[in-house]
Amino acid sequence: MPQGGPIDSIPPVVIKANPENFSTNFKANEIIITFNEYIKLNNAQKQIIISPPMDPKAETYPLSSASKEVKIKITDTLLENTTYTINFGNSIQDNNEGNPLSFYKYVFSTGSYIDSLSVSGSIKDAYSNKTDEFVSIMLYEVDSTYNDSVVYNKLPTYISSTQDTVNTFTVDNMKAGVYKMVALLDKNQNYKFDPSNDKIGFLDSLITIPSSKKYNTSIFKEVLNYKAERPKQISKNHLIFGYQGNADSTKINVISETTPDFEYRILQDTEKDTLHYWYKPFMEVDSLVFQVTNQKYVDTVLTKIKDMKRDSLTVSAITKGTIDVDTPFKISANIPLTKLDTSYVNIINQDSIPLNFEYSFEKRKNTYSINFPKEEKQIFNIQLLPGALTDFYNATNDTLNFRVKTPDFADLGALNITVTNIKSYPVIVQLTNDKGELYKEIIHQEEDGNVFNFTYIKPAEYLLRVIYDNNNNAKWDTGNYLKGVQPEEIIYYPGKIEVRANWDVVEQFRLK
């Protein structure tokens, strides 16, 4: 049987364009680009970038079918004496094999000449080691009407997009001037910054074109300004307050008239942006009114109250199965806990030897951490007799029995990494999985040195990152555009680190 000819690997070729590419004194409302073969447009909505952006957006055809022509219908009133660039990215592909005509550009000017200046650089994600595709680079001309809020309500003067796997960009056909450069992961594709959906990055200073400098910035997701939602009652003495933003400094005070013995506790939900509000005694009222404050935020909210079934105390172990020798055993409960009576707590090892222990309590998380001496290949039985735990409503636990075991050290590995060229302290060094989920971390002040020893590590491949903890709060902090605050810098170790069982890995990491 005939095998056919060789596979087509040649991209489409532009035969002509009407009006011609690089036209000046442009007045048309439709552009037709003709090819030597049938083509299709792939992911045109993201790939095709028109700069300056048009409002309403130009209409591009074909949308789904194959054609030998690409048509662009312009419905916006074009700016005078302005150079426009239509960058097709990799959207133009031949219909049969999908060979792309990479980064074809159609350029025209409504004036008598084509602007020819450009600016380039790269974008990365401030937190993740993987950067999203199609990050928009927006430049706003700094004139008498400019202010920092233009990113929320005005279209940029020029726009481009990252178009390759190394996240580089070029903005072409610009005119000389002073500009504000912003990078935006524009989820709504409306060329405007929506903090609830978009990531943003910005340069600390304005840029002047022409410039031969490469500009690099990092995109980040802002913490939203705090806002409380209307509370809901979910059981007899239990309300929930949803919110957006950071709830660390939130205070909830009841405004309604209460009894002298009124008390409350607030717990942070471990999975949702929700605060749990527990109170006593229950009051026979139609509603309760609260004042919610968070730094400068103040709001008054109301919720209806009805007689519902009261929750009963349920205690659960956060630590289950295997426990590392250097971590505590943790328990939590569905109702705020107020007391741990150690005389009702027994911890014995597999030889039935009682163990001494210490404990700490995280009130906001409602979690007890119990520390006791542990060795490898041991089984530990932890028993909480009735009365060991008391909750906010003076209920106590039934008998609770938990069993955990420590691993064989021969099944674990270690990582000793020396980090050099550290520019400031404290630094946080973290091991994570491929998804960026934290496994272990070590925090060093300057006096702790630059050698980080991770012990008792489960065999796997890990990512390692170094965080400059500028505000010394033991966590990574994002940035804020309007406040001009950049996110704390994170530097990833190149590649993955493989940790094997019964093996010490020694690495060097020089920071740039």
TrEMBL record:
Protein name: Ig-like domain-containing protein
Domain SbsA Ig-like: 8-110
Keywords associated with the record: Signal
